[in-house]
User: What shape does this take?
Amino acid sequence: MPPGDLVVTDLDGTLWHLENEIHPTALAALRQVVASSTPLLVATGRRRGATLRPLGPLGVLPPAVVLNGAIGVDLATQKRFHAEPFIADHAVAVLTAFRDVGLDPCLYVEEPDCEVVVSAAPSTSRQHLESLAGAVRTGDLDRLWDGKSSSRARVPLLRGRV
Assistant: This one.
């Protein structure tokens, strides 16, 4: 494969249909890109951990733009190269809009041991919560951006999931 400027791939529905089922041809193409001098970038709606988990066993840890562009992270080093969090006032307005229709969303955050914060009564399904095992914690969603929470490094990324 001749070197190119950059190869960008999505994961779900592009590189694979199920993360534990990558077509042999797609895997061969991925390995060919990795072996070439062409940089590889993953662009996905997944969280960092949900991106890293299936790629790690393949030995492929490229930079990735995750959460639909909200965070850019080098999967090999875990160093962030991009972040586009909600502005606090906008995050409060979005959370209020969810609650006005009776929903309590999942908040996607950048914390050392957590990627998702949910309230004690989240609107998401039990299956979704189970899929977040090891990456989710329960917390007061309002305290994530009001300056009172010691675990907050940045304004969270808010994404509704019902």
User: Anything to note?
Assistant: The helical segments are 24-35, 48-55, 88-100, 126-131. Residues 7 and 82 are 18 Å apart (CA to CA). The domain at 7-83 is CATH 3.40.50.1000 (Rossmann fold). Residues 88-100 form the longest helix (13 residues).
